[in-house]
Amino acid sequence: MAEHKTWRQLRAEIITTAERDADVKAGAAGMVLESRLYELRQRRALSQRDVADQIGVSQARISDIEHAEDMQVTTLAKYIAGLGGTLHVQAVFPDEVCDLTA
Predict the structure, then answer these.
(1) Residue range 31-82, pLDDT digits in tens
(2) CB count in 10 Å sphere of residue 44
(3) Are 37 and 65 spatial neighbours (Cβ–Cβ below 8 Å)?
(4) In whole angstroms, what is the distance from residue 31 CA to residue 35 CA?
(5) How many CB atoms lie within 10 A of CB 57?
(6) What pTM was computed for the model?
(7) How far is residue 89's CA from residue 100's CA, in Å, rounded to a whole number?
(8) For the chain, the helix, strand and coil percentages under 3-state DSSP, each to the nearest 5
(9) How far apart are CA 79 and CA 90, in angstroms?
(10) Which domain holds residue 47?
(11) Is residue 2 part of a domain?
């Protein structure tokens, strides 16, 4: 016989599933960013130490940045600067694109 669940039990499962889905999406986004940062650094033929020296942090900090699931835009901008680039941020809407780069 099938187990009957109360509304409270079902609601708890739904919330747990939604939270888990959000965690999975955030983790996937973090892995994509990690992969892209690593690939950018590799294409520029730079080591983590090279980037660290460029922006005045430790090699371990560069590793932390490359493995971060989430980071501040300022941190990303410094990392990109360490690669020799400039980060540009845009807000894209159906009717306009706004450049948010300082």
Answers:
(1) 557 778 999 999 999 999 999 999 999 999 999 999 887 889 999 999 999 9
(2) 13
(3) yes
(4) 6
(5) 17
(6) 0.65
(7) 5
(8) 65, 5, 30
(9) 18
(10) 7-99
(11) no
The neighbour count for residue 78, using CB atoms within 10 Å, is 17
Query: What's the CA gap between 4 and 6, in Å, rounded?
Result: 7
Domain count of the chain? 1
Residues for the chain: how many in total? 102
- 1 in a structural domain: no
Angle at 24 between CA 71 and CA 41, to 5 degrees: 40
Other Cβ atoms less than 10 A from the Cβ of 69: the count is 13
8 Å CB contact between 98 and 91: yes
CATH number of 63's domain: 1.10.260.40
3-class secondary structure, 35: helix
Give yes or no for a contact between 86 and 80, defined as CB atoms under 8 angstroms apart: yes
Distance CA 76, CA 62 (A): 11
Q: How many Å apart are CA 69 and CA 55, to the nearest integer?
A: 21
